[in-house]
Design brief:
Elements: E1 3-7, H1 10-21, H2 29-51, E2 64-69, E3 74-79, H3 86-94, H4 101-110, H5 114-124, E4 135-143, E5 150-155, E6 160-166, E7 172-179, H6 194-205, E8 212-214, E9 228-229, H7 246-257, E10 265-271, E11 277-283, E12 299-304, E13 307-310, E14 325-330, H8 339-344, H9 346-369, H10 371-391, H11 396-401, E15 405-407, E16 410-415, H12 417-423, E17 430-435, H13 439-443, H14 449-454, E18 459-461, H15 464-473, E19 475-476, E20 479-483, H16 496-520, E21 525-530, E22 539-542, H17 550-558, E23 568-572, H18 577-588, H19 593-609, H20 617-631
Parallel strand pairs: 2-8, 12-14, 17-18, 17-20, 21-23
Antiparallel strand pairs: 1-6, 2-3, 3-7, 4-5, 4-7, 5-6, 8-9, 10-11, 11-14, 12-13, 15-16, 15-18, 19-20, 22-23
Bound molecules: adenosine-5'-diphosphate.
Length: 632
């Protein structure tokens, strides 16, 4: 048979180098990773056989086997599961299938020190490759269930690997590690020692639902001993809380999530009664890179009576909790249940409601008890959770209770709505917010001037989803959520009448200029009026209370929807010298060519101030340069 040599994908090669050369503090985890892959392969074969009885595969004794050869210094992890075809080996083992690879490469360049590299390995949880932490050569022999020919893959973890077809491969996969030379200083990590292997399996893989067997080496002159099963196979979620250590829960988390780091929180739930189920859910400590991509895989696995049914079960939790990982084991579902059936099943829907409430109440508990952990949670998952404010009206209050937002009240401490309301000034009847790209840009926006002046707190919202949930939620404890950039605002509650009269007088005085400007700017502006929100800037742009904001308009367009362009409102600050000057110039002369330019410039300045772009940047620059020149 011919042996073909291939190159690893660039990312894969870099990752391998990282594995081999980094001093990952805990090399033992490679065995957990290989056993985890083997266990998945057994699950997959069992399911495939269930779906297609004609599949030519033996499922009578599915198991994992560990084989140590002291003399040859090899350790083999073998399963009789689904296996891989020739093409699959190249695809699955030669590349990294993680939609975060671009990010990964970037971070890799930055992670020069060992600590950074370790964090990265943890983050990308690169299962199979971790074998190279312990081995200088890895051989994988595999045959896909139902196929007759197998494949051998070998690599020394450098630039290339080889593939070769083989005739006598058993069903499933065996991974043989040619272990690095023994370290006499460190007997604990001697992977040819049965004792070490037994300890590692107990520690990391005890809960694996398939038997993990080891054949002890025969002593001279004796028959080969019986294989010994190393794991208890007990499902952690079915055991009582005091029987299971936190470490054990965390290992299950790592198996399910392919994350190497500890979870932030473990959530247990046991439902008794007519529809019995157990759930063991985990909130990770870090958001995955692809959380906001379309093909993000959810992390909840469905089991039926201890038997694995499916990964990534979307019916169990709403999309905004997609970052939650774990296992749900239901007693009364059919083993052949399909995704379609699950979506419509009444019990599953009830289960989803209960799990959702449980996750939210756990987050609330974290928030009450441990500010630092809550801060981590919110930093990593707050943006996802806020989607729930839009999509899950039933739990809106519970989500709001654990949501916090940046605020002008503090530079670094976010606030809840409840805290905001507590601080509201006498007579203030709205919760004010501003949306935009970044805290810095919105904090200095002209829309904020009157609020800053009067010491009124404003929430600073910078996620895309913020634009949407504020509309969906509308009000909190009877207080309307209002944008500082929308509608007319009236912050002078005390002297309302007097202030109102004064404004009316001023508006009359300016009516000519305002009307004339509106005509000049007709393409973009539907109204020009005097502002009550400006103290320092000459002008700003606002929307009508019910208009789409520019950010939302862009979002809908990006989603392919047709949205008419909304004309906006230009507000002028009658207290500003520039506006007063314009007014005088308007009254003084019939020749308005110069004035028209000034109006255009003023409008563009207002656009710039809210982070927008001039419609014709070249023209804007020319006009400004011309004016500057005249001041010299
Ligand atoms: P991950 O397990 O995180 O997806 P790995 O690098 O460990 O990444 O494995 C990549 C893929 O290779 C797996 O998703 C699986 O499809 C395949 N694979 C790995 N080990 C086995 C195995 N023992 N049997 C069958 N397929 C396997």
């Amino acid at each position: 048979m011919t042996t073909e040599t291939f190159e690893f994908q660039v990312e894969a090669r870099q990752l391998l180098q990282l594995m081999i050369h980094s001093v990952y503090s805990n090399k033992d985890v490679f065995l957990r990773e290989l056993v985890s892959n083997a266990s998945d392969a057994l699950d997959k074969l069992r399911l495939e056989k269930l779906r297609d009885d004609s599949l030519d595969a033996d499922v009578s004794d599915l198991h994992i086997e560990l084989d140590v050869d002291k003399e040859a210094r090899t350790l083999t992890v073998r399963d009789n599961g689904i296996g891989m075809s020739y093409d699959e080996v190249g695809q699955l083992i030669g590349t990294i299938a993680n939609s975060g690879t671009a990010t990964f490469l970037k971070e890799l360049k930055e992670a020069k020190d060992a600590g950074g590299a370790e964090g990265l390995i943890g983050q990308f949880g690169v299962g199979f490759y971790s074998g190279f932490m312990a081995a200088d050569e890895v051989t994988l022999v595999t045959r896909r269930a139902g196929e007759s020919q197998g494949t051998r893959w070998t690599s020394r973890g450098e630039a290339t690997y080889t593939l070769e077809r083989v005739d006598d491969a058993p069903q499933g996969t065996s991974v043989t590690l040619h272990l690095k030379p023994a370290d006499p200083e460190n007997q604990l990590h001697d992977y040819t020692s049965a004792w070490t292997i037994r300890e590692i399996v107990k520690r990391y893989s005890d809960f694996i639902t398939w038997p993990i067997r080891m054949v002890p080496e025969a002593k001279d002159g004796e028959d080969a001993p019986e294989p010994e099963t190393l794991n208890s196979m007990k499902a952690l979620w079915a055991r009582s809380r005091d029987e299971v250590s936190d470490d054990e829960y965390h290992e299950l988390y790592k198996h399910i999530s392919h994350d190497w780091r500890e979870p932030l929180e473990t959530i247990r739930l046991q439902a008794e009664g007519t529809f019995e189920y157990q759930a063991l859910l985990f909130v990770p400590s870090h958001a995955p890179h692809d959380l906001f991509t379309r093909d993000f895989k959810r992390g909840v696995q469905l089991y039926v009576k201890r038997v694995f049914i499916m990964d990534d079960c979307e019916a169990l939790l709403p999309p905004y909790l997609r970052f939650v990982k774990g296992v749900v084991d239901a007693q009364d579902l059919s083993l052949n249940v399909s995704r379609e059936i699950l979506q419509q099943d009444r019990h599953i829907r009830m289960m989803q409601r209960r799990l959702t409430k449980k996750v939210l109440s756990t987050v609330k508990e974290i928030k009450t008890k441990d500010a630092e952990r809550y801060a981590t949670f919110w930093r990593e998952f707050g943006t996802a959770l806020k989607e729930g404010l839009v999509t899950d009206s039933e739990n809106r209050d519970a989500i709001l209770a654990v949501s916090s937002f940046a605020t002008t009240h503090s530079d670094d401490e976010p606030t809840t709505l409840a805290q905001y309301v507590e601080r509201m000034k006498d007579g203030q009847d709205a919760i004010w917010f501003i949306t935009g790209e970044s805290r810095q840009s919105i904090e200095n926006s002209p829309h904020m001037e009157a609020f800053r002046d009067k010491g009124i707190e404003v929430l600073l919202l910078t996620d895309a989803v913020d634009e949407v949930w504020v509309d969906a939620v509308g009000e909190y404890e009877g207080k309307k959520l209002r944008s500082v950039a929308k509608g007319e605002i009236d912050l002078d509650a005390e002297d309302e009448e007097k202030a109102g009269e004064e404004r009316e007088k001023q508006a009359e005085e300016y009516a000519g200029l305002l009307g004339w400007m509106r005509e000049r700017l007709d393409e973009d502006i539907k109204e020009v009026r005097l502002s009550t929100r400006l103290t320092v800037s000459p002008a700003c742009i606002v929307s009508d209370a019910h208009d789409l904001t520019p950010a939302l308009e862009n979002m809908y367009r990006a989603m392919g929807q047709e949205v008419p362009r909304t004309k906006r409102i230009l507000e002028l600050n009658p207290g500003h010298a520039l506006v007063k000057g314009l007014h005088q110039a308007y009254q003084a002369s019939e020749d308005r060519a110069e004035l028209a330019e000034s109006a255009e410039l003023l409008h563009t300045l207002a656009v710039l101030a809210e982070g927008g772009q001039p419609k014709d940047p070249a023209r804007f620059v020319r006009l400004v340069a011309d004016r500057l020149e005249r001041t010299l």
